[in-house]
Specification:
The complex is a heterodimer. Chain A is mostly helical. Chain A has 15 helices and two strands. In chain A, strands 1-2 form a two-stranded antiparallel sheet. Chain B is built from ten helices and eleven strands. Chain B is globular. The chains are: A mainly alpha, B alpha/beta. At the A-B interface, helix 10, helix 11 and helix 12 of A face helix 4 of B.
Chain lengths: 351, 256
């Protein structure tokens, strides 16, 4: 994504003259996708009120962090990873365990180590831990490419889930960890939903900024070259394994950040939040929004979140089927998109 | 490398690139078999041979795409048993591919730009496009006549344009040894002339060029030196017209 001032000037000029706008907008699918999705989001927020907007906004921001980070790997570098949820889970569990307080231990059926760290001390550890695991995993994964890479990343997601489920002395297995601490600075606790939304959006902004910095640098250009032809990139003097490992680790650290935020927001996590399906949905979001575009990932996350929340209000659909129905709709959307617009809503690059 | 006796000929002064008994096997097939060749500095050297004679394998070995099974490659006096693809530019080698391999879904501009920027990943993160990079990219694109197409995606170019862009990308590397794998295949006469003049210009500027071709007219016109390969081994070597008139070359390659 390039921030281009001429585009903004163009937009302003278009906004002043409706006729010119219509000429510009005719057949411009990208623009309509943007307008439709953002309009949909705004209408929804206004209709449902502030409380709804805040909680949906938080869910959106967490998914958006994940989508943007995954797009660095899938869209820009061309490594189709379906194991991203593993790093998300690592971040979540690290924060949950490090912030766990001895005071809650009596309530728990199965004891885990208690550290009682504040959230803002645990979060960097979670990010670093996700990064460290990504280094180890990435060194192995660097040997694979294309469909084999998809398979091994699939394996990683399965392994991560099973570790969360079975390493009961640390994760409490299927019982999950509850009473996870909310972030606090001094005596001020982010216990309100609005404060938490502000925090998550701030982190999303940071992630978008870092990602933008990466993809507009020389490094980012090399990533796209690796996506197009890894061997040719090597011939031009790039040690592609370094580049692939670097972006893999950066992306995993962002996912770890999202996990930490998620754990603290829900205050309860169990292995079911980190199943392979979540990874698949994430890949769908990235492809839906468009590969190799940061803005596309944000749009994709909006669509995804609104699909779930939007369908809660369909009268004849029982509440317990909403989650599944969303997946069906998402699947249909993807098929339609792949048929008519393989580059995603706002992307240029085709899978 | 350097000799104590001043009267001894220093081979590395004359030959920029030498291979000593290099071999490459694919299963039972010997693609390159104990091949020893020497490439003259600042000459255009052509490699010809029937299909499957090991021309492309040799180019792949010299550019590090394939690992050597046996033998040594001596580049500018440095002997190498292992040559990795990403280290080849450091030894002054770059190449093009027989099947044009551009970075398809990025712009023509970025295709050149990517060969100019920082190679180490950490500094690359903090490097933005500099005016020098832009100037260089512009001059390369103009010299291969692709400046008007700079914003197009590489995949949208015609075949000839893709070939030219790939040659431009190799030129942008600014090395001293260029390996061109069939740079003339499938080109229009007009494009042919352009590529020929590009190669001649590169020689004028003191570069060594090795190319593979099946077009005998071009081989006769361009090459200063000719190697004929057959079944991975050297069949003939020498001055072009002389080699191409040898009976065994005619038998093996040109046919009757």
């Amino acid at each position: 994504m390039q921030i281009d001032t001429t585009a903004i000037v163009d937009m302003l000029r278009l906004a002043q003259s409706p006729r010119e706008f219509l000429r510009f907008a005719k057949g411009n699918l990208e623009l309509w996708a943007n307008l439709l999705i953002i309009g949909w989001a705004v209408v929804f927020m206004v209709w449902q009120g502030t409380g709804f907007a805040i909680s949906v906004g938080t869910v959106f921001a967490i998914w958006a962090i994940l989508a943007v980070s995954l797009n660095l790997v899938v869209g820009f570098t061309g490594l189709l990873s379906v194991g991203h949820v593993g790093f998300f889970g690592l971040g979540a569990y690290t924060v949950a365990i490090l912030t766990s307080d001895a005071a809650y231990e009596q309530l728990r059926t199965e004891a885990i180590p208690t550290f009682g760290l504040p959230f803002f001390a645990a979060l960097p550890v979670a990010i670093l831990f996700a990064g460290l695991v990504a280094v180890a995993v990435g060194i192995v994964f660097n040997r694979f490419r294309d469909d084999i890479f998809v398979l091994v990343s699939f394996g990683f997601a399965i392994i991560a889930f099973n570790v969360f489920l079975n390493l009961r002395s640390v994760t409490r297995g299927a019982f999950g960890i509850h009473e996870i601490a909310r972030p606090e600075i001094g005596t001020w606790v982010f216990d309100g939903e609005l404060e938490f939304l502000a925090l998550v959006v701030a982190f999303l902004g940071l992630v978008v900024l870092i990602s933008w910095f990466i993809v507009t640098s020389s490094f980012g250009r090399v990533l796209t070259a690796i996506r197009e032809d890894e061997q040719a990139t090597e011939v031009f003097g790039y040690q592609v394994t370094h580049f692939k490992l670097a972006i893999w680790v950066i992306s995993a650290m962002m996912a770890g950040l999202a996990g930490g935020l998620f754990a603290s927001w829900t205050t309860f996590i169990d292995p079911n939040s980190f199943i392979l399906l979540e990874s698949m949905l994430l890949v769908c979001i990235v492809i839906l929004g468009g590969l190799a575009t940061i803005w596309g990932s944000l749009l994709g996350a909006i669509v995804f979140v609104l699909l779930e929340e939007g369908m809660r209000f369909i009268p004849f659909l029982p509440a317990e089927y909403v989650g599944q129905a969303r997946q069906v709709v998402l699947g249909i959307l993807l098929v339609i998109l792949m048929l008519f617009r393989p580059q995603g809503l706002v992307g240029r690059y085709k899978l | 490398m350097s000799t104590s006796r001043p009267d001894k000929i220093d081979l590395d002064e004359i030959f920029v690139l030498r291979t000593k008994e290099v071999s490459k096997r694919f299963g039972a097939v010997k693609a390159v078999d104990q091949l020893s060749i020497s490439i003259f500095r600042e000459w255009i050297t052509c490699i010809v041979g029937p299909n499957g004679s090991g021309k492309s394998s040799l180019i792949n070995l010299l550019s590090g795409i394939l690992p050597l099974d046996e033998g040594v490659v001596v580049i500018d006096g440095v002997g190498l048993r292992v040559l990795k693809a990403h280290e080849a530019p450091g030894h002054g080698i770059t190449r093009t591919f027989q099947e044009v391999r551009l970075f398809d879904q990025i712009s023509v501009w970025d295709n050149i730009m990517v060969t100019l920027t920082e190679r180490r990943f950490l500094p690359a993160l903090f490097e933005r496009t500099s005016p020098q990079h832009k100037e260089k990219t512009q001059s390369i694109l103009q010299s291969v006549g692709m400046w008007e197409k700079k914003d197009a995606m590489a995949m949208d170019l015609s075949y000839g344009q893709r070939k030219l862009l790939e040659i431009g990308r190799a030129m942008a590397m600014d090395v001293s040894i260029y390996l061109f794998d069939e740079p003339f295949a499938g080109l229009f006469p007009q494009m042919l002339e352009r590529v020929k003049s590009i190669l001649k210009d590169m020689r004028e500027q003191g570069n060594t060029i090795i190319f593979v071709s099946h077009n005998m007219d071009i081989v006769r016109e361009l090459s200063d030196h000719l190697f004929v390969l057959d079944s991975g081994a050297l069949l003939a070597v020498g001055e072009v017209d002389e080699v191409l008139s040898r009976p065994n070359v005619i038998d093996a390659y040109l046919g009757t």
